[in-house]
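User: Design a sequence. Structure:
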């Protein structure tokens, strides 16, 4: 069950984790991309924090939508529109009721897939979102499992995004967007959102 307060705590913890891991996320992106994923994400989550502090929110839908607009306009790169679409998708679904967290996350995944067309195994954030949605449905999301999905992107060959330009050379590195998405799901566990 998501409430306004819980959702804000969840998103602020996500922002805190992104800020803490900013350098690491960019280092990961240095290996298979252009080295900006950490700064992109930190810029987005800082903007998100600001808008979440700016006013009082009445609905979970409004929180997710406003957060999504901030992420969409401030992250930039490929991941900005993807996180933006995830949050806008989640907001729409939250308008139907905030009790079913797995339905909300599923709508977020749908948003990412519609925007980016990535499939399982393409070495993107989808490789974390997809199993996470399933695990939330089955009430078996855990930090250990999140770690497994993130690490599982290491041997994958990138088929989408900048990393795909490297072909075989993308193998052997974790996907930065999978790592940042892992932080989002870890934050859910820690804030007791599930
Ligand atoms: P850019 O590649 O434009 O510099 P970022 O570095 O911020 O953007 O984000 C890169 C991340 O975006 C990748 O690690 C990957 O997880 C994600 N990504 C890229 N393309 C796609 C896609 N088509 N579908 C899902 N995720 C994607
Ligand atoms: Mg990048
Ligand atoms: Mg970039």
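Assistant: Done.
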């Amino acid at each position: 069950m998501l409430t306004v307060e819980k959702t804000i705590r969840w998103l602020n913890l996500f922002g805190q984790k992104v800020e803490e891991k900013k350098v690491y996320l960019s280092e990961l992106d240095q290996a298979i991309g252009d080295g900006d994923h950490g700064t992109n994400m930190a810029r987005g989550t800082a903007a998100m924090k600001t808008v979440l502090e700016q006013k009082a929110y009445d609905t979970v839908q409004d929180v997710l939508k406003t957060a999504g607009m901030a992420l969409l306009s401030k992250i930039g790169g490929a991941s900005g529109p993807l996180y933006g679409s995830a949050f806008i998708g989640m907001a729409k679904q939250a308008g139907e009721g905030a009790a079913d967290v797995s339905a909300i996350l599923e709508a977020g995944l749908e948003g990412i897939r519609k925007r980016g067309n990535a499939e399982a195994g393409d070495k993107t954030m989808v490789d974390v979102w997809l199993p996470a949605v399933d695990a939330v449905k089955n009430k078996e999301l855990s930090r250990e499992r999140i770690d497994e999905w993130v690490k599982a992107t290491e041997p994958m060959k990138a088929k989408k995004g900048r990393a795909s330009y490297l072909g075989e050379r993308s193998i052997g590195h974790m996907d930065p967007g999978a790592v940042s998405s892992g932080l989002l799901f870890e934050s859910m566990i820690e804030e007791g959102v599930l």
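DSSP finds nine helices and no strands in the chain. Residues 4-190 form a domain with the Serine Threonine Protein Phosphatase 5, Tetratricopeptide repeat fold (CATH 1.25.40.340).
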